[in-house]
């Protein structure tokens, strides 16, 4: 007798079901889809997860990450091999509680190969095979012949037989059709690998929970989500470029393409992590709070430092938080596995931004915040010595004189007083070019001005 009807012998219970598609090569995008689906299912108290699988295999390290993710789900996990589960797909299927097949489903050929598809050095292959077989045994305990079957799909050099019946000869890898996978052996009889054959997803849901005894939700993966998932591999570069553009924006007067581009780059970093299921809304909220504090420091309370340092810390910390793999209903553990990788990515992005900024500094205009800091450090002068920008220096007392902003003041920029240009800063707020201003203090190498109403 076949095991296709084995589910019918179990008591059917009502339940909430989420179907997660694993329909491509096993790589980072599939890992992110699985994580997002599992986290949403945990938050919604879902009873059963079904992996709708059709994959030719893929990366071994990603496979292990997917197996770890499946272990975090407290309910039942089921793989439905809709067409094929080859190589890494077979290992992932082995990590679920039950395996069902479409009538034409295939599973097998899980021997490790290099990333280029070539054979691995024999000694290294033996070590990897030994490790994989141990992992398979650990995730297949109490599941009949499953551990032996998956091991036979991994190990080319071993023979697999049940009693006197040889299932796999030495020198070949085991692959099974749906009918072969549910065939029973032994006394009492156990299926070789599969729990049953289901003609389609509806049929599978009836076998698991009965007709009309369940609710089902299909995890939708859009083209934009897939693009965002691939962008996660470029996170350090995108973050570095984003921070660089924001540095340039603070350097140049006004707000324009550099500021918009920098914010867009950082938005992509957040979007890619959120879409991949690696964060919720909280990191974005903390990032925006950091931006607000930094803006208050720059535009309204220059020199306070506390607001700027706090804002910068919140922004960088939220970037690390957004990339940390945190799970619902589990305490946050401060460990290297969770935070070291994201921290390295953020530091790499900051370092890249600083290096690029220093490299192009010579091509930027002299105005703005950075120009003021450079002048302060490079030119020695008395407390009332202000260099003009269009020839010569003016050491006279400019306090009380009026002039005009020749660049926007956000809050720093350039003003024209008595025919000469000077670096200047508003005490509070900002002003457009052409605004009449009055000098209220003349300290070190910059004027402090106020808008003349």
How would you portray this structure in words?
The protein is α/β, with parallel strands linked by helices and 453 residues long. It has 3 domains: 213 residues, 2-enoyl-CoA Hydratase, Chain A, domain 1, CATH 3.90.226.10; 138 residues, no CATH class; 84 residues, OB fold (Dihydrolipoamide Acetyltransferase, E2P), CATH 2.40.50.140. It has 14 helices and 19 strands. The strands form 5 sheets. Strands 1, 2, 3, 4, 5, 8, 11 and 12 form an 8-stranded mixed β-sheet that branches. Helix 1 packs parallel to helix 2 and helix 9 crosses helix 13. The radius of gyration is 32 Å and the shape is elongated. The N terminus is likely disordered.
Any key phrases for this structure?
43% helix, 2-enoyl-CoA Hydratase, Chain A, domain 1, disordered N terminus, 3 domains, 19 strands, 453 residues, 5-stranded mixed β-barrel, alpha/beta, OB fold (Dihydrolipoamide Acetyltransferase, E2P), 8-stranded mixed beta sheet
């Amino acid at each position: 007798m076949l095991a296709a009807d084995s589910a019918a012998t179990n008591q059917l219970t009502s339940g909430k079901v989420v179907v997660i598609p694993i329909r491509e090569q096993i790589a980072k995008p599939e890992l992110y889809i699985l994580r997002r689906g599992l986290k949403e299912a945990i938050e919604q108290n879902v009873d059963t997860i079904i992996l709708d699988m059709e994959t030719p295999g893929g990366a071994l390290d990603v496979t292990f990450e997917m197996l770890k993710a499946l272990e975090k789900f407290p309910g039942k996990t089921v793989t439905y091999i809709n067409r094929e589960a080859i190589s890494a797909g077979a290992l992932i299927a082995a990590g679920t509680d039950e395996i069902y097949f479409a009538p034409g489903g295939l599973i097998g050929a899980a021997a490790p190969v290099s990333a280029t598809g070539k054979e691995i050095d024999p000694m290294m292959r033996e070590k990897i095979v030994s490790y994989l077989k141990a992992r398979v045994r650990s995730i297949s305990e109490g599941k009949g012949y499953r551990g032996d079957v998956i091991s036979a799909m991994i190990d080319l050099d071993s023979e697999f037989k049940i009693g006197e019946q040889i299932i796999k000869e030495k020198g070949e890898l085991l692959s099974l059709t749906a009918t072969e996978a549910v065939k029973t052996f032994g006394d009492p009889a156990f299926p070789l690998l599969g729990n049953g054959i289901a003609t389609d997803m509806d049929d599978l849901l009836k076998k698991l929970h009965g007709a009309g005894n369940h609710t089902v939700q299909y995890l939708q993966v859009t083209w934009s989500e897939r693009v965002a998932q691939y962008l996660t591999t470029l996170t350090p570069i995108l973050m570095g470029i984003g921070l660089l553009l924001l540095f340039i924006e603070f350097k140049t007067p006004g707000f324009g393409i550099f500021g918009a581009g920098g914010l867009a780059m950082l938005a992509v970093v957040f979007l890619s992590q959120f879409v991949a299921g690696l964060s919720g809304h909280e990191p974005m909220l903390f990032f925006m709070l950091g931006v607000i504090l930094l803006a208050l420091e720059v535009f309204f309370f220059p020199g306070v430092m506390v607001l700027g340092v706090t804002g910068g810390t919140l922004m960088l910390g939220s970037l690390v938080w957004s990339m940390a793999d945190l799970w619902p209903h589990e305490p946050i553990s401060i460990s290297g596995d969770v935070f070291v990788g994201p921290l390295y990515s953020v530091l790499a992005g900051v370092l890249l931004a600083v290096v690029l900024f220093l490299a192009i500094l010579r091509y930027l205009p002299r105005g703005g915040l950075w120009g003021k800091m450079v002048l302060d450090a490079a030119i020695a002068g008395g407390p009332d010595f202000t260099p003009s920008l269009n020839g010569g220096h003016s050491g006279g007392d400019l306090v009380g004189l009026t002039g005009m902003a020749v660049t926007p003041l956000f809050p720093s920029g350039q003003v024209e007083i008595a025919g000469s240009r000077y670096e200047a800063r508003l005490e509070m707020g900002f002003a457009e070019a052409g605004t009449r201003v009055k000098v209220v203090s003349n300290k070190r190498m910059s004027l402090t001005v106020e808008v003349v109403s």
